[in-house]
Specification:
The chain has 11 helices and 2 strands, in the order ααβαααααααααβ. The protein is mostly helical. It has 2 domains: about 35 residues, no CATH class; about 160 residues, no CATH class. The chain starts with 6 loop residues before the first helix and ends with a strand.
Length: about 210
């Protein structure tokens, strides 16, 4: 009767078999590590929409606010530090960045530096929260190419880290001084929208 193999021996044999598809045992092991890690991430948010019936604007609004998921994340982050009206304003900016930015520019009638500085910090925190369920690879695929590196740096650094504080703040300041703040805000808002829903299920009539 064959003796059951030790776990380490079985794993080695499995890796040797898998290496035929992945090139080397190391590559096969790396893929297993990656997949095992992904299986232990929190489940992404799934959204079910039924009977759209051509209601484009209503459907678009649901996608933009992730059926209230974005507002919940914002409240979790800032519920104790921001007024309700400010939370609503931030959420509206995330849902409709182009429209809201134009309105804010008209209302401010002057220097937008303070607004940009505060808003960029807040949006990065929101993006950190909604992207926390995903691998860096998946998040990277959803980033706009022109800002991908900058957004990744902001996502994985913190102004609270003394060693990286100047680095983090300088990124924010340079986004503003180069005149890219408006475009960057629009880009990061769109990423927040995309990552707030992992899978969309459309049921019934379209």
């Amino acid at each position: 009767m064959n003796q059951p193999c030790l776990q380490g021996t079985c794993n080695k044999r499995l890796l040797e078999v898998l290496s035929q598809n992945f090139g080397t045992v190391t590559a096969a092991a790396a893929e297993i590590i990656n997949l095992e890690a992904i299986l232990n991430l929190p489940k992404g948010t799934e959204h079910f929409v039924a009977d759209i019936h051509g209601e484009h604007e209503a459907f678009s609004h649901i996608l933009r606010n992730a059926s209230g998921n974005i507002k919940r994340k914002v409240q979790e982050l800032f519920g104790n530090t921001m007024r309700d009206d400010d939370i609503r304003q931030l959420c509206t900016l995330i849902y409709y960045p182009e429209r809201k930015l134009e309105r804010i520019k008209e209302e401010e009638e002057g220097d937008m530096t303070d607004f940009y500085h505060i808003t960029l910090h807040r949006l990065v925190k929101v993006l950190q929260r909604v992207s926390s369920k995903y691998t860096r690879s998946k998040v990277r695929k959803n980033l706009p190419k022109q800002y991908a590196y900058i957004i990744e740096e902001l996502l994985h650094e913190s102004p609270a880290d003394i060693n990286k504080q100047k680095y983090y703040n300088r990124i924010i300041e340079t986004i503003i001084t180069t005149g890219e703040a408006g475009a960057f805000i629009k880009a990061i808002c769109n990423v927040i929208q995309r990552l707030s829903i992992d899978r969309l299920h459309i049921l019934g009539d379209i």
